[in-house]
Write a structure and sequence with these properties.
5-stranded mixed beta sheet; Lambda Exonuclease, Chain A; about 300 residues
């Protein structure tokens, strides 16, 4: 069962604030650790922070602008009519779960998610595949609305159109609900930041929370010797692998000589000429200090280093 929240006449800011009151479909993959560009830590920041922000990138804008076109292509490909829903849905059994769906399928207990994808990501849709964070998004919508089927349609820019059909899965949906519930109760409601997962998204959140250090402030770091020793071992392994990689590249370059292109049984190799232009900032600073001062900018960051005690 679900509650229907009218969103047809609310402002964009009101809609964004409403999204902060629960986990939406685009949050599901991140909470499950399956999102390539987000993380549980990022979702925590979004839900607990005071600011109301919306990701504004060219890819996001293209997705918004082409949503109707993708819906029309789905109807053309399947014969199924779709309609907009002017509501946000909130699960009454699990009120931390909300759904803002793209389309509902007319005459069928189903919904539709519309996507656009770069041609560089075409392989992620090959052979019936669906990117995993989109799979979790669709099952999240099924969990909230109770609908037994969810379609996902994708326009792969410059390459073609695909659609997939997902059916209700008791086990998967049950696990998804448990994962989202644990995240909401143990982190969002308590204000306890979730553990990092090594992603770039976590780096960005940590910098936003702790971008500046208190000069000279020192603390005792207990219980981390084992992890820091493992970090040291990893750095040694990385250095060894980097040396091996570089050696292989050098062997190939020696074999290629002056040739720009080469082919082996399974690979094509290019060693091309590249021209680049760089400003000699050191020389500008020495010879034209007034110009350097006018255009120089200062950036603030924190440097992380580990040394033996």
């Amino acid at each position: 069962m679900y509650e229907k929240i009218p969103i047809g006449d609310i402002t964009r800011e009101e809609w964004l604030r409403l999204r902060k009151t629960g986990l939406g479909g685009s949050d599901a993959g991140a909470v499950c650790g399956l999102h390539p560009y987000s993380s549980a830590m990022k979702v925590f920041q979004d839900k607990t922070g005071d600011t109301v922000e919306e990701l504004d990138t060219e890819a996001v804008r293209i997705g918004h602008d082409l949503e109707q076109y993708v819906a029309e292509r789905f109807t053309e490909a399947t014969g199924r009519k779709v309609r907009r829903s002017h509501f946000m849905y909130r699960s009454t059994d699990h009120p931390f779960m909300i759904a803002d769906v793209d389309r509902l399928v007319v005459g069928e207990d189903a919904g539709l998610e519309c996507k656009t994808a770069s041609a560089y990501n075409a392989d992620k849709w090959a052979d019936g595949d669906i990117p995993l964070h989109y799979v979790m998004q669709c099952y999240h919508y099924m969990a909230v609305t109770g609908k037994r089927v969810w379609y996902i349609a994708a326009l792969i820019l410059g390459r073609g159109f695909v659609y997939r059909r997902l059916e209700w899965d008791d086990g998967l949906i049950g696990e998804l609900i448990r994962t989202e519930e644990a995240f909401w109760n143990n982190h969002v409601l308590t204000g306890q930041i979730p553990p990092p997962d090594g992603s770039k998204a976590c780096d960005e959140v940590i910098v936003q929370y702790f971008g500046s250090a208190k000069a000279g402030a020192t603390m005792a770091l207990s219980g981390f010797d084992g992890k820091l020793e493992r970090r040291r071992d990893i750095l040694k392994e990385i250095a060894a692998l980097e040396t091996e990689k570089k050696q292989i590249e050098q062997e190939v370059k020696l074999a290629m000589g002056e040739h720009e292109l080469a082919r082996s049984g399974n690979y094509r190799v290019s060693w091309s000429n590249v021209d680049s232009t760089r400003l000699d900032t050191k020389r500008i600073k020495e010879e034209k200090p007034e110009i350097y001062a006018d255009y120089a900018t200062v950036s603030h960051s924190r440097r992380f280093e580990v040394k033996a005690a």
